[in-house]
Amino acid sequence: MLLVRYGELALKKRNRRMFEERLLHNIRQKLDPFSGVTVQQTFGRMFVHLNGADAVSITQALQQVFGIVSVSPVVRTELDIGEVKGAALALMEKHDMPNVTFKVETQRANKQFPLTSQEVNREVGAHVLRNTRHLKVDVHEPDYPLTVEIRPQGVFLYTERFPGLGGLPVGTSGKVMLLLSGGIDSPVAGYFTMKRGVEIEAVHFHSYPYTSERSLKKVEDLTRQLAVYGGPIHLHVVPFTEIQTNIREQCEESFTITVMRRFMFRIAQQLAEKRGALALSTGESLGQVASQTLESMRAINEVVQLPVLRPLIGMDKQEIIGVSKEIGTYETSILPYEDCCTVFVPKSPQTRPNLERTRQNEANLDVEELVNDAVQHTEMKTFTLDDKREFASYFD
Ligand SMILES: Nc1ncnc2c1ncn2[C@@H]1O[C@H](COP(=O)(O)OP(=O)(O)OP(=O)(O)O)[C@@H](O)[C@H]1O
């Protein structure tokens, strides 16, 4: 079986129970495709009973679940030193090669056990040394620390510890609406938002026919990739052509980007309120492009009341690219595509838009009607880890 450790030990009692229940739910959901596998929560950790399923694939799946600190394949024996020695030898035999070292580390949480930790270390270590050809003991830097945990329910032995993603289980910190473009940054922002336990829904602004079906497919693929970490994700696709056309006709060219972003935020906020999301999240970082200066952010933020999370604010482009490669979104993000923001690019956009002039630029637009109309025609699709379960629906 697999031993799953989780962190955030500072959590208070009530929060801790919620954390554990949610983590258990998320692990079960993640392991749903593996038949026969069961999960059990006991004494501050979880055990995954493999029942014949492949330990490597399941460990990899668990390494994509937020809230898990590490995973170890473990062997359980009865509270009997003879059995412990046998299990220790079976675990170490596969590493019996020249120049490989080990060390037995016993933790005795069960004081009823007749031997002390030191005695278990000695007996188990001696048994392994006697029955293998090459293995040697190194107490300082062993290749394989062999942990023996003696607990009331039995003895648990393991040599490996695979790191998890850490963070909090998705669903323990409320819901956020992520503005998801087809670029590199916003999927990474979605990943970091989920890392702190937030469930996300995504919103994408699509300017058909200026932006193609292919660019929409790309955003759907990115949503699917984020669902690997967050469970099923709803994607709201907003028709944005009408608004962009109006902006182009009515606004000074240099203000089009700022005004367009204000519309995106207004619409995202309405959708967030409909769906019970408490904040927006974007892939903005400071100073990367003209629209990402503090002055721009202030002009854009002005139109919403919900908090706007910007998880990438302290990151350099190279760091963001590094994360996007690790989480598997990079290859999709760099596919050529048109975003609604790149279709009508002004020659010299305002880098420090003045608030008063921004408002004046919207004076000739029927903001409320345009926003309501876009929200009404928004289409919602749901993407899960398992593509076959994808379905589409509409809401008014
Ligand atoms: N078509 C869109 N649909 C939804 N959100 C968008 C769209 N275009 C931009 N955004 C949001 O605005 C943010 C800033 O967009 P911008 O194009 O200025 O930056 P970017 O650094 O290229 O971001 P990204 O790599 O995520 O596209 C994006 O990270 C995303 O959150």
Automatic annotation (TrEMBL):
CDD domains: PPase_ThiI, THUMP_ThiI. The keyword Nucleus does not apply. Residues 56-161 form the THUMP domain. InterPro entries: Rossmann-like_a/b/a_fold, ThiI_AANH, ThiI_fer, ThiI_N, THUMP_dom, THUMP_ThiI, tRNA_STrfase, tRNA_sulfurtransferase_ThiI. GO terms for cellular component: cytosol. GO terms for molecular function: ATP binding; CCA tRNA nucleotidyltransferase activity; tRNA binding; tRNA-uracil-4 sulfurtransferase activity. ATP binds at residues 179-180, 204-205, 261, 283, 292. Its main location: cytoplasm. Pathway: Cofactor biosynthesis; thiamine diphosphate biosynthesis. It catalyses: [ThiI sulfur-carrier protein]-S-sulfanyl-L-cysteine + a uridine in tRNA + 2 reduced [2Fe-2S]-[ferredoxin] + ATP + H(+) = [ThiI sulfur-carrier protein]-L-cysteine + a 4-thiouridine in tRNA + 2 oxidized [2Fe-2S]-[ferredoxin] + AMP + diphosphate; [ThiS sulfur-carrier protein]-C-terminal Gly-Gly-AMP + S-sulfanyl-L-cysteinyl-[cysteine desulfurase] + AH2 = [ThiS sulfur-carrier protein]-C-terminal-Gly-aminoethanethioate + L-cysteinyl-[cysteine desulfurase] + A + AMP + 2 H(+). Keywords: ATP-binding, Cytoplasm, Nucleotide-binding, RNA-binding, Thiamine biosynthesis, Transferase, tRNA-binding. The keyword Transferase applies. It comes from the Bacteria. This is Probable tRNA sulfurtransferase. It is found in: Cytoplasm. Catalyzes the ATP-dependent transfer of a sulfur to tRNA to produce 4-thiouridine in position 8 of tRNAs, which functions as a near-UV photosensor. Also catalyzes the transfer of sulfur to the sulfur carrier protein ThiS, forming ThiS-thiocarboxylate. This is a step in the synthesis of thiazole, in the thiamine biosynthesis pathway. The sulfur is donated as persulfide by IscS. Belongs to the ThiI family. Its EC number is 2.8.1.4. One of its GO terms (biological process) is thiazole biosynthetic process.
